[in-house]
Write a structure and sequence with these properties.
It holds the Pfam family K_trans. With 1051 residues, the chain is of the alpha/beta class. The chain has 3 domains: 9-245, NAD(P)-binding Rossmann-like Domain (Rossmann fold, 3-Layer(aba) Sandwich); 352-801, Amino acid/polyamine transporter I (Up-down Bundle), CATH 1.20.1740; 813-939 and 980-1050, no CATH class. It has a 7-stranded parallel β-sheet, with helices on both faces.
């Protein structure tokens, strides 16, 4: 399975020039964040970093360091983790040599030999020792690639010291691959002649001779060589390989010696015999195109062979228990987070369920646009219109519905859903999965399914466009702001929609009771608003049982009233289907006609369907004969004797019409919470069948209060109409832009094909938007102000969360980073202590079971590292309890729990997948956890000892083995059953003695050197964070067993 590079963090040593710089570029092009190590040339490093950041929109950091200095190698890894937020790939490209006389054992001094050894061998050991903890912690492990040389395979090269140490590094690579797999993949790239600044030192004559002797008559391509690093990083089936990139000898058919095949740690060797004299004269290797070569194979490892020397090699399994007692050679086990079922997917319904969902949508979706006949004409005209004007406005309404609703939304935008979720912000979220335009919470990385297309899969213009967008900080910020503003503008208009719809319906009372006071109308409106929001907790499925029939009856009223008015007044209004009527109206009225677009857009606010068409026709037919009826056309145009039933059904329909925006509000808030743009608040899923049906209590009550205030302050639909529409048109324009980008980068259309449709629709959006902007002084400023304030709060929260992620990245280490163990002299007991980097203080073991809470399961809980490092104590048995919420009603018990073993003895990781209807935190939680660990131990580890004694040794190992070693192997062979029994006994004893639930409370402080604007923003973020975070008292756990551990981080 390919290893996706997008979003990976890569450290490249000696990366500022030559091959290293090109490798940096290749990984950046694939969406990786890059840490560039340089030794002395800071200008080259800065220039490269600037270019990579601008071209590929990735994080790039430069680090000064010397591969010959042990402390520098460790610091490179730590600084990379700190600055990039993690480490996934190390390209060990640094090395050292000096040109020396071939075969002269005295030409290099002892100091130069030591420098070769440190730079070419020990630097790899030091880098790997520093990187291994974070590699072990990564869900996908890590990749370590060594820049070696053909000189490491023959007796040649720039110097004897270089050749010898490169050979040693290759053998070290094989040990790495064997000892650290499968979590870490280690390979080496052996380039041939590269004409970098260093390669040019061979001189023109030597380079020419080497090219002449090459099979391809050319030097090794830098670009080809750099691509090999990318391919090795992506290839999950290779480790322990020496990949030679060169063509420095003739390809003779007789030169094939043998091919050895296996899954990893193998050799595919196609090489000529070494021409030592030529190599000595050249000073470098001239070996042919050997690829994937590996160490020799002992007889006992060969299962079968043929006359062609094609053989399978059995790799010896690493003992599961053998290293447990002696230390932490074995890393934390894979927590099993890469489960395809964890990703959210769109729900697909057929048959009766599809019909039932369509019926529900009638009540939720079609109500908004269906009630537009209540207020469109009254918001468009300020005085009785002429017949010609009413037909012109009707034509605008018809063609706006066709273009904006049918063509734009139904035929195009509804197809740009993000696994079933819709809206502008959802489209932005979709783009962020296909483009490198946003950061994500590292703890939840495995919950996001990235689908970024390879560069070659896009149209050429699309490639350039994506590169520009990803590399431009301004463009990325603009897309982010557009996505957030689209959400907040819908929220702001969400305060107006219920007020507009309900007030428009209640105003119908004035038709039958002209003397009714304005206060009574407002009072009735507010009462209906309270009832509407009070029933939201029932959920959409239950609400639509009543709402859908109301809308169906309402649409029927419009149809019947329409037929009546068309028959009795003016059927010629059908000429409005001619778009020329719309253009004629706009030309005739000039600027005033353009301003009326701000009223006609109310016909398609909601952009859901065309059912309101007939209602608009029947009102136009009536107003064309009775112009004074424009102020309340629906009720004035009602047939005799139907006013009271029309009033009742209109009020009910207006209530239902508000449901669309309320439902959308809940959906949008859920989306922004997923991408960390607002604090987590309670979200209730109201349906076990339809996963997207939500209810958010606090948002519901705040909307109710805001809607009542809006209805009371504006007090009529004309005033509300002036405030309404600006945000709607901004959102439709944002939708046009976002979906156009989705067409290019998700659907992979050419930008040239997308441009003309985008321009056409954008012009239509712009016409309406420019018209409604004239309403800003008349009341629209209110919604814009609300939207702007909410957007600033969302962006502030997101900024603070990103700073928090960077601060927490320093603690993303496996348990073996903090704790080491050793066996006592008697061999019967294991003692624990902190690792050398933390002072090697002994750790006290407290009796009992400690359950450490954490999110997602990506990393070791920060509370554990803080607990151990500061208290130098740990529970006897430890369980990391990770909660992993999935967007489904329930997770089957058999799939709910994933257990893995950690490097610390008697320490386990339990990842709990759960749906929104599952109850996980219960008073008997400890019992459930212990039962899961017990079942896992019995299931996976209770294996007969005879099955564990199949370990074999090579002939060479047997010859070198001692009696003690043989006895040790025999003891280890019977260890599993004894270890399982011991672990089960410890688990039972710890559980019986005492259970502690240990929960972290992370406090943050701002670094002293932070500038003032940044300090103000972070202070606001921390204030919001401290007042919105979940309280420990909300957990349904026994109070006497809960401990909250506070700790401090700087941001």
């Amino acid at each position: 399975m390919p290893y996706s590079l997008r979003g990976r963090n890569v450290l490249v040593t000696a990366g500022s020039r030559g091959l290293g710089a090109l490798v940096c570029e290749k990984f950046a092009e694939n969406g990786c964040n890059i840490a560039i190590n340089y030794h002395s040339n800071i200008d080259s490093a800065k220039a490269l970093a600037s270019r990579l950041h601008e071209e590929f929109s990735v994080k790039v950091h430069i680090i000064k360091g010397d591969a010959t200095v042990a402390e520098d190698n460790e610091r490179l890894v730590k600084e990379t983790i700190s600055e990039l937020g993690g480490l996934d790939i190390v390209i060990a490209n640094a090395g050292w040599t000096r040109f020396a006389k071939p075969g002269d054992i005295y030409d290099l001094s002892i100091d130069e030999w030591n420098k070769c050894w440190q730079a070419n061998v020990m630097s790899h050991l030091q880098l790997m020792q520093a990187a291994k903890p974070v590699f072990d912690q990564n869900p996908d492990g890590g990749v370590y690639l060594i820049s070696s040389s053909i000189a490491g395979t023959i007796t040649g090269g720039s110097s004897m010291g270089y050749s010898v140490t490169k050979a040693a590094a290759l053998h070290l690579m094989k040990h790495f691959a064997f000892s650290l797999g499968p979590k870490i993949r280690v390979n080496a790239v052996l380039p041939g002649l590269l004409l970098t600044e260093w390669g040019q030192q061979y001189g023109e004559t030597m380079i020419k001779n080497l090219k002449e002797r090459a099979a391809l008559k050319q030097e090794t391509s830098l670009d080809d060589c750099a691509n090999v690093y990318v391919n090795l990083a992506q290839n999950t089936s290779m480790t322990g390989q020496e990949v030679i990139v060169g063509n420095l000898d003739s390809l003779k058919p007789a030169s094939v010696h043998r091919i050895s095949l296996c899954c990893d740690m193998t050799s595919i060797r196609i090489a000529d015999p070494v021409h030592q004299e030529d190599e000595a004269r050249a000073g470098i290797s001239t070996t042919g195109p050997s690829i994937y070569r590996m160490h020799s194979v002992s007889k006992q490892d060969i299962i079968g062979s043929t006359e062609d020397d094609i053989c399978n090699i059995r790799s010896r399994p690493v003992e599961r228990f053998g290293t447990r007692a002696s230390g932490f050679e074995q890393a934390d086990d894979d927590p099993g987070l890469r489960n395809p079922d964890d990703f959210k997917g769109r729900q697909v319904f057929t048959g009766k369920m599809l019909f039932w969902l369509a019926y529900q949508s009638t009540g939720v979706i079609y109500g908004d646009i269906g009630t537009s006949p209540l207020y469109v004409y009254s918001s468009t005209f300020s005085e009785p219109p002429s017949r010609q004007d009413i037909i012109g406005v009707l034509s605008i309404v018809i063609w706006s519905l066709i273009m904006m609703v049918t063509v734009k939304y139904i035929l195009v935008i509804l197809h740009a859903d993000n696994d079933g979720e819709g809206g502008t912000f959802s489209t932005y979220s979709l783009l962020s999965r296909y483009m490198n335009i946003t950061n994500r919470d590292p703890r939840e990385a495995s919950l996001v399914q990235m689908k970024r297309h390879l560069t070659g899969d896009l149209e050429h213009a699309g490639q350039k466009m994506r590169r520009c967008l990803e590399s431009s900080k301004f463009a990325r910020g603009l897309l982010k702001v557009m996505g957030v503003l689209a959400v907040t503008m819908v929220l702001a208009d969400g305060l107006l929609t219920p007020a507009q719809s309900i007030l428009g319906a209640v105003q119908g009372i004035e038709v039958v009771q002209p003397n009714i006071s304005r206060g009574t109308i407002i009072g009735v409106t507010d009462a209906i608003i309270v009832v509407l929001f009070a029933i939201q907790a029932l959920g959409i499925t239950k609400l639509t049982m009543a709402f859908s029939p109301i809308i169906i009856i309402w649409l029927g009223f419009n149809a019947v009233f329409g037929i009546y008015n068309l028959a009795n007044y003016d059927a010629s209004v059908f000429q409005a289907f001619n778009p020329g009527q719309a253009f004629e109206f706009l030309i005739r009225h000039g600027q005033d006609g353009w301003r009326t677009l701000g009223g006609t857009l109310l016909a398609f606010t909601g952009v859901e369907a065309l059912f309101a068409d007939l209602g608009a026709f029947r009102q136009a037919a009536y107003i064309s004969v009775n112009p004074e009826a424009y102020s309340n056309p629906f009720f004035n145009a009602a047939p005799p004797g139907t006013v009271y039933p029309a009033l009742v059904i209109a009020i009910l329909a207006a209530i239902v019409a508000s449901q669309a925006i309320i439902t959308a509000t809940f959906q949008l808030l859920s989306q922004v919470m997923k991408l960390s743009y607002m604090p987590q608040i309670t979200v209730i899923h109201t349906s076990p069948i339809f996963h997207g049906q939500l209810y958010i209590p606090i948002a519901n009550w705040l909307m109710m209060i805001g809607t009542i205030m809006v209805a009371s302050i504006f007090n009529n639909t004309t005033s509300l109409g002036n405030a309404y529409g600006v945000c709607v048109m901004f959102v439709t324009f944002f939708d046009t832009c976002m979906v156009s980008l989705a067409a290019i980068f998700v659907w992979r259309f050419s930008p040239y094909l997308v441009f003309l449709p985008w321009l056409t629709v954008a012009c239509l959006d712009g016409a309406y938007l420019s018209s409604v902007l004239t309403k800003v002084p008349q009341g629209a400023w209110v919604t814009l102000m609300i939207a702007a304030i909410l957007a600033l709060l969302f962006l502030l929260w997101r900024y603070g969360k990103e700073q928090q992620w960077f601060a927490e990245a320093e603690d993303r280490f496996p348990t073996s980073h903090f704790i080491s163990s050793s066996i006592t002299d008697t061999g019967s007991e294991t003692t624990m202590s902190l690792t050398k980097r933390y002072g090697e203080y002994p750790l006290n073991t407290a009796r009992g079971l400690g359950i450490f809470f954490d999110k997602a399961g990506e990393t070791t809980p920060i509370v554990f590292s803080q607990f151990v490092l500061k208290l130098t104590s740990m529970p006897e048995v430890i369980i990391f309890f990770h909660l992993r919420p999935l967007e489904m009603p329930s997770v089957h018990p058999e799939s709910r729990y994933t257990l893995s073993r950690l490097a610390v003895p008697n320490c386990y990781r339990l990842v709990v997948r759960y749906g929104y209807n599952d109850e996980i935190i219960t008073p008997n939680l400890a019992h459930v956890i212990v039962e899961q660990v017990r079942k896992w131990l019995l299931k996976d580890y209770q294996v007969p000892a005879t099955e564990q004694t199949t370990e074999t040794m090579t002939e060479e190992e047997k010859d070198n083995s001692t009696t003690n070693t043989d006895n040790s192997l025999k003891e280890k062979a019977s260890t599993p059953s004894r270890d399982v029994g011991r672990e089960l006994a410890k688990l039972e004893a710890a559980y019986s003695h005492k259970v502690l639930y240990i929960i972290g409370k992370e406090q943050m402080k701002i670094k002293p050197d932070t500038n003032l604007p940044r300090r103000i923003l972070l202070n606001l973020f921390l204030w919001i964070r401290d007042n919105t975070r979940n309280k420990i008292a909300n957990l349904r756990l026994p109070t006497d067993k809960v401990i909250e551990v506070g700790f401090l981080k700087e941001i």
